[in-house]
Amino acid sequence: MSIRSETVEGVATVVLDRPEKHNAIDLADARALAALWRGFRTDPGVRAAVVTGAGGRAFCTGIDREVAGDVPQPHSPYAIEDPLLTIGPKANDLWVPVIAAVEGMACGGAFYLLSETEFLVATEESTFFDPHTTYGMVSAYEAMGMAQRMPFGEVARMALMGTAERISGRRAYETGLVSELAPPGGALDAARRCARVLASYPTEAVQGTVRSVWAAKEAARTQAMAQAPHLIALGNLSPERQAALFADRPGRAGSGASGSGPGGEVRVR
């Protein structure tokens, strides 16, 4: 397991710690993240949380391609087995505020986590992209989650352009995806500073506010996600053809089925 956590002065820092894999998530990590968020629900010592990736080169690059094929899928377009669906705090009914600290790449399956945090702190050097279409996969849950945080045209472009483009930290800040730009290497400190403020306030008021903000957009998000399984089933290439596309693109920066790294030309916006 490569998820670690420590709590200091009411702030839990959750670290994805597989820098050699660009913090791609395997099945054990997915289970550990879900258990961690659930554990925070009953821990009065946790009043705010920060989630980040180790190593500085990536926040997260989605599910590890080496284990993605181990997940059997239902023989139905109306259901899907997706281990990343439970890695976020809201999926585990956690209303402690969670802030994401992004350094380096955040792509594909990373959006399951990012879309369930209250806000993001990043650096200008951080980058956001969604490789699904490049490799013959539908960006469904990822695009739906990010559509709650980004202007329509921005999330549509990111989801459709695949590995051909990355959104810079500066552009993410300009479009509202990122709420604060920190200096290089400073995203975690900036996120912790915010988290300490939240942890100092009355817990009931903070969590009630978190719940209120999410209630405002929950209906649209729930309705959209209900369509995801059959959109994925209809639109994804076969695993064999996906694997061929991965093999044909050298220089991939990550290993995530829901978030591999870029191949070919990349333009920073």
UniProtKB/TrEMBL annotation:
It comes from the Bacteria. Residues 253-269 have a biased composition (Gly residues). Residues 248-269 are annotated as: Disordered. Pfam families: ECH_1. InterPro entries: ClpP/crotonase-like_dom_sf, Enoyl-CoA_hydra/iso. Belongs to the enoyl-CoA hydratase/isomerase family. This is Enoyl-CoA hydratase/isomerase family protein. The lineage of its organism: Bacteria, Bacillati, Actinomycetota, Actinomycetes, Kitasatosporales.
